[in-house]
Amino acid sequence: MFPIISPKQLKELSVEKLIILDVRTGKDSYQNYLNQHLKKARFIDLEKDLAETNENVAFGGRHPLPNIQNFAETVSRLGISEDSHVIIYDDKNGANAAARAWWMLKSFGLKNVQVLDGGIQAAEKEDLEFSSGEEVFEKSEIITKKHWLLPVSSLEDVENELTNESSTVIDVRGSYRYKGESEPIDLVAGHIPGAINIPFSENLDKNGNFLKPEILKEKYQKLLKNKPGKLIIHCGSGVTACHTILAFAYAGFEIPNLYVGSWSEWSRREGKEIAKEI
Length: 278
What we know:
It contains eleven helices and twelve strands. The protein is α/β, with parallel strands linked by helices.
């Protein structure tokens, strides 16, 4: 199963245990959900459900992974079972929280998880059915897991592997943030020394849809030629990095490591070198 599904494919999909998740973000995200969402979609919150509150961002970043037992309770509350087919959408071409939710559900061990290509905007163009207000559904039994299954890297891992030139670290933020021209979210502009920049937006075509798998595969094979094979992906806080991890999975590659703390952690950690290209 491809990790990406088009609105047309969703429209034609007929499965018994289909669950749709609305993962739009921002201060009005829940109200926007209540106003209009894909029919039967359930709301999931980036800040409360897909991350843990962090008092010290220098250790863990702005969006650290929640305790896996807490996430198990979120999965249960949303009515998700191990045999559910989960479709996730946001309003940022999968680049905000939809890809993060996909990564977490896959890392939690669920098999049938897909991101809606083009997000809610593409769903509207395809005339999928919408509704408003709360959706009523039953909880599922809590699934017990001991640890996340997909590979993650710590700040120390990133530092050691860059020093040893044993990994390729990809920073998926916009080039202006990588170069240190400006920093709209974190406290310091710049990038991790040794990291290369491939903005996540380059996974998309001019219409905001994911490039075809074969195009993504050729693109990354060229970009990463003669570079260390192990890949570590990061962004500002471990959210949009999942967009590129999703693109790698879509292209048929092995899933890279996620550096969850990302720039938000590195840039705040005392003594860490910061590189700029200005």
